[in-house]
Amino acid sequence: MRTGGAARPTTVVGCGLALVLVTSGACAGCGSSGSGSGAAAPRTASAAPSATAPEALCARVVTYWSRKVLDSHTYGDYQTMGLSNGQYDILRDVVDAARATKKRQGASAADRLIVRRAREGCRDWYRTGGPSNGPWQ
Predict the structure, then answer these.
(1) Is residue 98 part of a domain?
(2) Among residues 53, 120, 113, which one has the least CA distance to residue 90?
(3) What digits encode the pLDDT tens for the residues 28-83?
């Protein structure tokens, strides 16, 4: 058993010191560094990243790979491209149409077709269930 009041002031001082350290640590980054004005910079809340719709992500990857595959004679492996089987089906349809368009109307028309058909294909695919349509879809 302890006697005297020595233990309590140490505890109080220790907690007070910890509170000061925690508080000063929390405010250490409040000012603007290097501004020279001495005034604290206004803090703005950063918005949470917005989620991209699955259809848009699908269209983005299908468009990317369609452009890569357009001039080659092979489609490659859908798994190494990071595509699902359903996305790969869309890619093959898009590239087939883009190859024909490129022969008739040129590369610019083929690129526009890729963007449009990838968006349409992915939109339709997700409208009917997307990847949850079956085990390999």
Answers:
(1) yes
(2) 120
(3) 444 444 445 555 555 666 666 678 889 999 999 999 999 999 988 777 888 899 99
Question: Rounded to two decimals, what is the model's pTM?
Answer: 0.60
Q: How far apart are CA 37 and CA 84, in angstroms?
A: 55
| Radius of gyration of the chain from its Cα atoms, rounded to whole angstroms | 30
Q: Is residue 116 part of a domain?
A: yes
Is residue 56 one of the residues assigned to a domain?
Answer: no
Distance CA 112, CA 61 (A): 15
**Cβ neighbourhood burial of 129 (10 Å; 0-12, 13-18, 19+):** exposed
- b/e for 3-17, b at 16 or more Cβ within 10 A? eeeeeeeeeeeeeee
Domain that holds residue 90: 64-133
In 3-state terms, what secondary structure has residue 58?
Answer: helix
User: Is residue 49 one of the residues assigned to a domain?
Assistant: no
Number of domains in the chain: 1
Alpha helix positions (H), 41-106: 54-69, 78-81, 85-105
Single-letter amino acid, residue 41: A
